[in-house]
């Protein structure tokens, strides 16, 4: 069935006559009639009872109506989602982003967006805390991990793969672990900012992912500090690949289990629940997503 025929069918129910539908869509009555007949032929059943006074849905027509309404609503929402994209963007946006994303690409992407729209100002804080959007007055937050608050809307941007890595100096001194279980005998540097415990490192298993509970003498909630400790040869680190992408390429850090690490978290644009977010927020999300996808190799 064609989506435009389903939309036309829902309009026939709403307006109650072929002539009103024809007038609204700048069609002739015969075209409307032929398209409804085509829909009935494709469905294999009669959808409408036609009399000189009114149109009535058959049982099959009532069953199809909700689906037709859904198609119409989805089409309208698709149009609404891009409405105003060519208009001037003004106002203010308050947002919060994680430190890794902010340092890596968001600071530049958001500053670029402000430059593209001179009437707009953005207040962007870099914070690893899961801030309260409503109480904090935030229009937009970039989050990594899982969203549990049903009063918020999350739009997926990209997935972030984690790695287990160490410097060549550390490996030369303490040997390279051959399997994740070998980590139990190594000094594991722990990143306290994660949804699971800092000492619980996730790896792929044959049926489901498994957790290795590691130990170590250094823990931090600052990703930059964790990276520096790993580069200094003080232990093995478990962190997002985007943070150490250049270090891995240069050989300053070694990816120890490139195909085995099971942790892969989504990065989301999150905003308070509304039918449609403000145009300025929609545009900023689109801009941010474009910049993330241009740098997908980091993740």
Automatic annotation (TrEMBL):
Residues in the signal sequence: none
Any Pfam family matching the protein: HTH_1
Domain HTH lysR-type: residue ranges: 1-58
Gene Ontology terms describing biological process: DNA-templated transcription
Key words, A-Z: DNA-binding, Transcription, Transcription regulation
GO molecular function: DNA-binding transcription factor activity; sequence-specific DNA binding
UniProt family annotation: Belongs to the LysR transcriptional regulatory family.
Listed name of the protein: LysR family transcriptional regulator
Organism expressing this protein natively: Vibrio marinisediminis
């Amino acid at each position: 069935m064609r989506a435009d025929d389903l939309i036309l069918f829902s309009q026939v129910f709403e307006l109650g006559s072929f002539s009103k539908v024809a007038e609204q869509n700048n069609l002739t009555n015969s075209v409307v009639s032929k398209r409804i007949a085509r829909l009935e032929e494709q469905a294999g059943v009669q959808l409408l009872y036609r009399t000189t006074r009114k149109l009535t849905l058959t049982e099959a027509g009532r069953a199809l109506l909700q689906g037709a309404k859904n198609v119409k609503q989805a089409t309208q929402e698709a149009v609404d989602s891009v409405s105003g994209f060519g208009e001037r963007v003004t106002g203010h946006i308050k947002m919060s982003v994680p430190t890794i994303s902010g340092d890596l690409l968001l600071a530049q992407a958001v500053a670029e967006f402000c430059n593209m729209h001179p009437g707009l100002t953005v207040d962007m804080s870099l914070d690893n805390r899961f801030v309260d959007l409503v109480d904090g007055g935030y229009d937009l937050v970039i989050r990594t991990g899982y969203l549990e608050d049903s009063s918020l809307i999350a739009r997926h941007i990209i997935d972030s793969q984690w790695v287990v890595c160490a410097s060549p100096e550390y490996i030369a001194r303490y040997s390279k672990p051959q399997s994740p279980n070998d980590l139990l005998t190594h000094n594991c540097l722990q990143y306290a900012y994660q949804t699971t415990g800092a000492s619980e490192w996730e790896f792929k298993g044959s049926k489901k992912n498994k957790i290795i509970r590691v130990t170590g003498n250094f823990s931090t909630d600052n990703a930059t500090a964790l990276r520096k400790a790993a580069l200094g040869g003080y232990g093995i680190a478990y962190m997002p690949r985007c943070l150490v992408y250049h270090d891995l390429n240069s050989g300053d850090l070694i990816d120890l289990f490139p195909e085995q690490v099971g942790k892969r978290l989504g990065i989301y644009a999150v905003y308070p629940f509304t039918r449609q977010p403000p145009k300025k927020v929609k545009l900023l999300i689109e801009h941010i997503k474009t910049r993330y996808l241009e740098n997908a190799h980091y993740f």
